[in-house]
Amino acid sequence: MPNPRTLAVAMSGGVDSSTVAAMLRAEGHNVIGLTMQLWNQRRLAGHEGMPESVHGRCCSLDDVYDARRVAEHIGIPYYVVNHEERFEREVVRPFVQEYLSGRTPIPCSLCNNHLKFDQLLIVARQIGAEQVATGHYARVEFDEARGRWLLMRPADRRKDQTYFLFGLTQEQLSYTLFPLGNMTKPEVRELARQHGLALAEKPDSQEICFVPGGDYKRFIDAYLADRGDALPDTAGELVTTSGEVIGEHGGIHNFTVGQRKGLGVATGSPLYVIQISGADKQVIVGGEESLYSRTLRVSRVNLIAVDELREPMRVSVKIRHRHEPAAAVIEKIDSAVTTHSGESGDAEILVTFDQPQRAITPGQAAVFYDGDIVVGGGWIV
Predict the structure, then answer these.
(1) CA gap 195, 234 in Å, rounded
(2) 241 and 257 share one domain
(3) pTM for the full model?
(4) Domain limits for position 32
(5) Tens-place pLDDT, residues 263-305
(6) Candidates 58, 59, 108, 111; catalytic one
(7) In a domain, 227, yes or no
């Protein structure tokens, strides 16, 4: 190989990152495996309703074992970096606070933005690695005409993870490799088999790593109890979109926009959660037609493909991970949008869809696309 490099691979213990490590090692690179220990999966075991078993969940101790086993199999050095304290401070606590305020957060994006790429790049440089490679399904390339690094959707659209990566900066993208960007999942599993990886058939994790079974309410109760904190009183009124009080609820963190079941009231027609007002502890409910909206506002914007949004731009916008990007126009609604490096922003962007979208949810991300190119994204207000 003409240019072997020293590369750090972020190894999660799954088939994707393990295959990346094996393929780069086979190409002749000097590969170093790194795993971030982020959450003690047994910490809340024993609290009421929390499972004792943590098997099959992202970032578990089993995953650390699997990653170490792969590193030994392919013959690379391997290190575990403990960032539990920072993960709790910058991901878990904001997750809990967001839910208690009536918003619906996505911790995976926070983790990518503030920990996985930020801290892994720091560690990689400390050990002499030139770049960091991950098992994410995405692509990155430098656009000479724009003079910018671009984040792009992968070949396997079913595994597209760009929605969770919209916060990456130009510097982070310049040091990052996504070797699976042009591969499909079946091709990755076949490559894992060719490299003799024991976890070639390991199923993908579908859960938030610290919320077993996706039961965020039970997790919040257990987490607060573990910290010795009382669950805040967020009980209040159930109110229709016309302002009529039709009942009471036990806490706004029990609800999310679009929810139909578990409202605790019976009417002649189905009711859905339309809005959650943390300030006055109200849950606003209405018919399904009230769930649709053509506009939303986005804050904490990060632009990737452009350095600034100088004029309205036609894009497609994704408002949740499984949402098909919808045609829209984005425009700035504040005087300052981002720094000229495109790394962060404190202004807001107005998104106007061509067609109304269902259940736009504050706390989720809105990510802007121009074809395969990620223009940028931010957090729905």
Answers:
(1) 53
(2) yes
(3) 0.90
(4) 6-135+179-214
(5) 888 777 899 999 999 999 999 999 999 999 999 999 999 999 9
(6) 111
(7) no
Residues 166-205: tens digit of each pLDDT: 999 999 999 999 999 999 999 999 999 999 999 999 988 7
Of 214, 241, 259, which closes a domain? 214
Taking a C-beta distance cutoff of 8 angstroms, is the pair 83, 38 a contact? yes
Same domain, 54 and 20: yes
Whether residue 166 contacts residue 365, with contact meaning beta carbons closer than 8 Å, is answered with yes
Please, how many CA atoms are within 13 Å of residue 163, restricted to the half-sphere of its CB? 21
Q: Is the torsion defined by CA of 102, 105, 107, 113 positive or negative?
A: negative
Instruction: Look at the chain and report how many structural domains it folds into.
Output: 3
Tokens representing 246?
Answer: 């039709």
Q: Is residue 172 part of a domain?
A: no
* Buried b or exposed e, range 60-78, using 16+ CB within 10 angstroms: beebbebbbebbebbebeb
Residue 92 and residue 33 share a domain: yes
Q: For the stretch 250-284, what's the b/e string if a residue is b when 16 or more beta carbons lie within 10 angstroms of its beta carbon? A: ebbbbbbbbbeeebeeeeeeebbbbbbebeebbbb
| 111 in active site | yes
Token pair for residue 94? 């904001």
Same domain, 49 and 193: yes
List of residues 6+ apart from 373 with CB closer than 8 A: 150, 151, 152, 153, 305
Distance CA 338, CA 303 (A): 7
What is the DSSP annotation of 190-221? HHHHHTT-TTTTPPPP-S-TTSGGG-HHHHHH
The answer to whether residue 151 sits within a structural domain is: no
Q: Could you identify the residue written with the tokens 């539990």?
A: 84
Q: Is residue 160 part of a domain?
A: no
